[in-house]
Amino acid sequence: METNVLLLRNYGFSDMMIKKIVLRNPNSITQKPEWFKDFLHKVEKDFRVTPDSATFLYGFRALACQKQSTLEKNIGIFKSFGWSDDQIVEMFRKLPHCVTFSEVRIEKALNLYMKELSFEPAYLASRPALLACSMENKVVPRMQVLNILDEKKLERRKLALYPVLMLTESKFIDYFVLPYKDQIPDLHESHKKLVTS
């Protein structure tokens, strides 16, 4: 453990950051130094996250919390949808935990965004927060509201899906649900059921 702590210090980790690793990933800090060093190297070299980056700690935790075989499967899913190595790296550098999602979750998100909505890998790689959104509790319910408004030809804020999904739930309700309570009385209730189901 002392060797691993020293490795972290050599990578520029503060005592506070080391404490976070110990508390959140206690198993990783007790691994063999060779294993530990390999993961630090992987974050820096394979995913091009420099030790002084704010995401280096998150990148290390993302890789250390799963098996190598699981990581390879997840990366393989992105590649099967046409993602390049550079695009996967870009996504990781912005939001490392995207590679820790389950295979089902990754496939579901990519099927929706890429096959149904025709989003390109480059677009998603630069906006990985889209992949982190819950399909069931956020993406699908909000898309349904927008579709209803468009089908009824009601005037609404013309925002792309990304900014719509980045809104807090209360802001989304204020912008896209409450203004139409007279024209579509059950819109709020039906949306609420989808979000909480």
From TrEMBL:
GO terms for molecular function: nucleic acid binding. GO terms for biological process: DNA-templated transcription termination. The keyword Transit peptide applies. Keywords: Transcription, Transcription regulation, Transcription termination, Transit peptide. It comes from the Eukaryota. Transmembrane segments: none annotated. Belongs to the mTERF family. This is Uncharacterized protein LOC104241104. The gene is LOC104241104.
